[in-house]
Design a protein that fits this description.
2-enoyl-CoA Hydratase, Chain A, domain 1; four-stranded mixed β-sheet; Lyase 2-enoyl-coa Hydratase, Chain  A, domain 2; about 260 residues; alpha/beta; single chain
Length: about 260
Amino acid sequence: MTQAIRLDITPPFAEIVLNKPAKRNALSVDMWAAIPDMVAEAVSHPDVKVLLIHGGESGACAAGADISEFEEIYATKDSAKASGDTIAAALNAVENCTKPTLAAIEGACVGGGVSLAMACDLRVASARSKFGVTPGKLGLVYPAGDTRRLLEAIGPGATKDILFTGRIFAAPEAKEMKLIDRLTEDGAALSEARRFASDIAAISQWSTRATKRMIKGLQSGWDDTHPEAAELFLQGFSNEDFQDGYKAFLEKRPPNFKYK
């Protein structure tokens, strides 16, 4: 039986691949449930520097939730809470991944697909990709964590626009509103995301992970003098990558970063 979701590890990358082409990668609860362990495996692998999430060869990123499950998983408040908790755990695992995360988006990226992409640090989409967040068309409200991620990325006006209307919009508009970070030609999202990830993997991994922690802390309310922010800055001068990095600069040679 084909796995609906899988983890491929080819250092320096790990890739979570959605693999349900018959349903355009519509996300079922069992797919969501698999994600936290996949993220944990990618984090624990010493040679993985970047985690990518994409829709493989299906022609879609993820066309939302698997609606065929709705009668069962939303039959009661208890079952709705259980499925909601499973989805939230998956998105939190991606958002809190200590290593950089990239979403590569081709084709439809709707509902849960947008949720998953927004949990990543960065998003690359092809010109043919389409976006939408459609709970309003189902009489639902977008969960708090998902709404927060949209607000942080695109602001309240654009968030209200796409949630109030539930409309489908094209990749150029998504780039303009800062829903995605890089726009590429049709069919090239994954190759561009891998190039992007290669650039990230080439620099100090101590720096990328400390920077990710710094940004998250500032978004959560740290001020400029927060003790953890100050400690992160000072730790930079004693970590092994800096010890070689500044010498490499002076000696005009490539650095030999070793932090994993």
